[in-house]
């Protein structure tokens, strides 16, 4: 409801306005016999009072457009016209229910402005006239009070609706954030898996390119590795894309598919050795097998370390060490010698985006640990510390 603007009414609005119009008209007719002094008026003045009251009742239909102006006019006319009281109650209710608190306070002050004068004259006033005055101000207070109650109720409902909408928006935002995190996890998975497979392809293809006169057995073995690595890369890509589609359609992260564990690191090292990388592997002394996030994180750290060594330090020896004890932490270290210009010949370096190590640090953090990487003297080192809970007694 906005003052001074054209208001379009629904069927419910029309029903309410007609009901309030009938209330205002019936109020004037029903109470006309109980008003003191009304019978003392001349017939002409009573007719004027009734006409003004009828116009005031008709003005009830303007309450949605000009509620404050209507209330002020009716308060002024109500000083001498009894039949205006019903429409006045409706106008005061409308102001209190739909206008700001400050506006309602000003209109209420105007409505109760005659009250001090009435209280001053009350001791010498005849009983019927005093009763009519008290009833009038009580009706004014009741009308404004009911309007204020409706105002507070409307604000409460609007607040609850706004809170529900915000909660719904926040839930949608959380769902979108969760989906984005799943997508980022899948992207990291794709990077880790495919970078490893493709680096193997690049190493063997480079060997064939720079040693075309190699024995047939070595060429056959390199071609076999390339074929197997290509098939494995395609299979990994197919699985990751399938998980991505499932995530998009059903919001699932694909945890049901097989995931690498700490026990698969040995196979990873053998693949690297088969590609010509000199790898020294120091496995965990304990026979414990890690699955889930920690085991997968260890596997990805070693995988990324071996991949980076093939990319940036081809031919350099790599040392992989996994150590630790239950109740303390699991330590993973991948170290390789940083090559000089003679080690990295032209055309042998494998390109990379350099995002894998940042992804590893995020993986370690999500697993509850931490990861450091960088150059230490003549070596490049990746070292991670992951939680290893104590065995239950």
TrEMBL record:
Catalysed reaction equations from the record: ATP + protein L-histidine = ADP + protein N-phospho-L-histidine
Enzyme kind, highest EC tier: transferase
Coiled coil: 150-181
Membrane-crossing residue ranges in chain numbering: 12-32, 69-97, 103-119, 131-149
SMART domains listed in its UniProt record: HATPase_c
UniProt KW keywords: ATP-binding, Coiled coil, Kinase, Membrane, Nucleotide-binding, Phosphoprotein, Transferase, Transmembrane, Transmembrane helix, Two-component regulatory system
Protein name, as recorded: histidine kinase
Organism this protein belongs to: Streptomyces gamaensis
InterPro entries, per the entry: HATPase_C_sf, HATPase_dom, Sensor_HK_TwoCompSys, Sig_transdc_His_kin_sub3_dim/P
Molecular function GO terms recorded: kinase activity
Domain Histidine kinase/HSP90-like ATPase: 293-390
EC number(s) stated in the UniProt entry for this protein: 2.7.13.3
UniProt keyword Metal-binding present: no
One Pfam short name: HisKA_3
């Amino acid at each position: 409801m906005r003052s001074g603007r054209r208001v379009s009414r629904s069927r419910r609005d029309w029903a309410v306005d007609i009901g309030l119009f009938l209330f205002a008209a019936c109020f004037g007719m029903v109470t006309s016999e109980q008003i003191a002094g009304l019978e003392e008026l001349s017939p002409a003045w009573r007719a004027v009072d009734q006409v003004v009251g009828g116009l005031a009742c008709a003005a009830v239909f303007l309450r949605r457009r000009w509620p404050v102006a209507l209330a002020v006019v009716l308060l002024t006319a109500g000083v001498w016209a009894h039949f205006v009281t019903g429409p006045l109650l409706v106008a005061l209710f409308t102001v209190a229910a739909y206008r700001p608190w400050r506006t309602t306070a000003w209109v209420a002050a105007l409505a109760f402005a005659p009250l001090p004068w009435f209280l001053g004259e009350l001791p010498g006033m005849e009983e019927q006239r005093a009763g009519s005055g008290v009833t009038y101000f009580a009706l004014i207070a009741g009308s404004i009070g009911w309007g204020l109650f409706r105002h507070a109720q409307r604000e409460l409902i609007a607040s609850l609706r706004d809170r529900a909408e915000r909660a719904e928006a926040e839930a949608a935002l959380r769902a979108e954030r969760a989906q984005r995190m799943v997508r980022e996890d899948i992207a990291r998975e794709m990077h880790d898996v495919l970078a490893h497979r493709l680096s193997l392809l690049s190493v063997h293809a480079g060997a064939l390119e720079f040693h075309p006169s190699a024995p047939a057995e070595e060429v056959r073995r390199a071609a076999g590795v390339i074929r197997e690595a290509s098939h494995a890369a395609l299979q990994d890509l197919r699985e990751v894309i399938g998980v991505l589609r499932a995530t998009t359609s059903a919001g699932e992260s694909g945890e049901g598919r097989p995931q690498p564990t700490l026990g698969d690191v040995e196979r990873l090292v053998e693949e690297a050795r088969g590609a010509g990388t000199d790898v020294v592997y120091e496995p965990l002394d304990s026979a414990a097998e890690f699955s889930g996030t920690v085991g997968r994180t260890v596997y990805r750290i070693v995988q990324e370390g071996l991949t980076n060594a093939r990319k940036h330090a081809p031919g350099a020896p790599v040392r992989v060490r996994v150590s630790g004890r239950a109740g303390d932490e699991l330590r993973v270290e991948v170290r390789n010698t940083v090559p000089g210009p003679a080690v990295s010949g032209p055309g042998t370096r494998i390109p990379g985006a350099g995002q894998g190590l940042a992804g590893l640090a995020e993986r370690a953090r999500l697993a509850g640990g931490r990861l450091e990487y960088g150059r230490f003297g003549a070596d490049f080192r990746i070292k991670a510390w992951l939680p290893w809970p104590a065995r239950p007694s």
